[in-house]
Amino acid sequence: MTTLVTGIGELATLDGTLDGADHAEGLGLLHDAAVVVDDAGEVRWVGPASAAPAADRRRDVCGRAVVPAFVDSHTHLVFAGDRAGEFAARMSGTAYDGGGISTTVTATREASDEELRALLRARVSEMRSQGTNVLEIKSGYGLSVDGEARALRLAREVTDEVTFLGGHVVPRELASRRDDYVDLVIGPMLEVAREHARWIDVFCEPHSAHAFTGDEARTILEAGRAAGLGLRVHGNQLGPGPGVRLGVELGAASVDHCSHLTAADVDALAGARDTTVATLLPGVEFSTRSPYPDARALADAGVCLALATDCNPGTCYSSSMPFVIALAVREMGLTPAEALRAATKGAATSLRRSDIGTIRVGARPGLTTLDAPSHVHLAYRPGVPLARLLDLTEPASGCDG
Ligand code: NIG
Ligand code: FE
């Protein structure tokens, strides 16, 4: 069965080759547009509403804007408990150093599979209700062979984009035996993780006693690569460090955070723009009250940018891509078009996916409607629930979206 989605006031296709579209800001914009989608979510046709072909069903979005569903390419959704107390302390001046991660490790280890699954699924539906379709999920709150395997297995139930983050922090019980923990990560943990995960990530951060040095991160990433996993890095979050350049050198798909960059880091990312995406997570700076990354310098240097939530109980307990877009525009100086591109096509690129993040024939991005006439409203109306993933299985009403 196919559905004609029509009455689209502004359609941001993100397809740079679409005839008749406005490509001035790289969004491939059409006005008064329509899209035909099949039941598997595959786009069959895109163009002006006046030229739309017939389809089995029809949905009228009554002048709303439609964008490709957001791709949230960095989340830590498999956890129990929360750290509201840590957040409150931070708002009174305590700095974030990754030490609170062990609180979540304890709560997560104590939770049953059913509890963790229910928490995870509730967070995924929270994301979908705000316009996200595909999301990446990391492990990293188990930090034992069984705990990491369980997190990866649960994550795999809800997404294909699963990341092994055994290298999140050194768990408390091995704090005085860091080398033994790294051996565990690259040995038995990786052996189990490779069955469930597509990616490996590491928190490379010399400014945190809990995270990993450049040498340790290299050992972990190289082992992951040898096991067939793609590479991602948490780098340069708390201060300048080796993470960004290590990620670029090893051909990582993404280096995430990038909050403290030297000119050499920016140059390295610009030179690697066809391989390595810089994923910015401004919800983290908001929630840890720290300086935002210099997104403008990265964009001007031609770096490929992604935006994601980093949803986790420590540094950003928000599941909202519209919130991240608003921060990227207001606080980091991206244009609304650049921010939308980073939250869709850029994030898809960071997952090495061309089948999501753009609305073009053959892709399966998911369609997100905005209760607004243009994508600019995502940043212009912060905190207002405008974005919603269009559910084609819902019965049509007068005005859908
Ligand atoms: O991306 N920096 C490391 N990991 C997460 C935070 C995890 C936590 O604090 O629970 C991040 O910010
Ligand atoms: Fe993270």
Shape: globular
Mean pLDDT equals 97
Percentage of residues in helical conformation = 25-40%
CATH class of the largest domain: Alpha Beta
CATH superfamily descriptor of the largest domain: Metal-dependent hydrolases
Q: How would a crystallographer describe the biggest sheet?
A: 8 strands, parallel
Attribute tags:
single chain, about 400 residues, alpha/beta, Urease, subunit C, domain 1, TIM Barrel, eight-stranded parallel sheet, 13 helices, 15 strands, binds N-(iminomethyl)-L-glutamic acid, binds fe (iii) ion
What does this protein look like?
With 401 residues, this protein is an alpha/beta fold. It has helices spanning 84-91, 101-110, 113-128, 145-158, 178-193, 214-226, 243-250, 263-271, 282-288, 295-300, 321-330, 336-350, 377-380, and strands spanning 2-12, 29-38, 43-48, 57-60, 65-68, 70-72, 132-138, 161-167, 199-204, 230-235, 254-257, 277-280, 305-307, 367-370, 387-389. The protein has two domains: 2-69 and 358-389, Urease, subunit C, domain 1 (Roll); 71-350, TIM Barrel, CATH 3.20.20.140. Strand 8 (161-167), helix 5 and strand 9 (199-204) form a beta-alpha-beta unit. Helix 3 packs parallel to helix 4, helix 4 (145-158) runs parallel beside helix 5 (178-193) and helix 11 crosses helix 12. It starts with a strand and ends in a 12-residue tail after the last strand. It binds N-(iminomethyl)-L-glutamic acid (NIG) and fe (iii) ion.
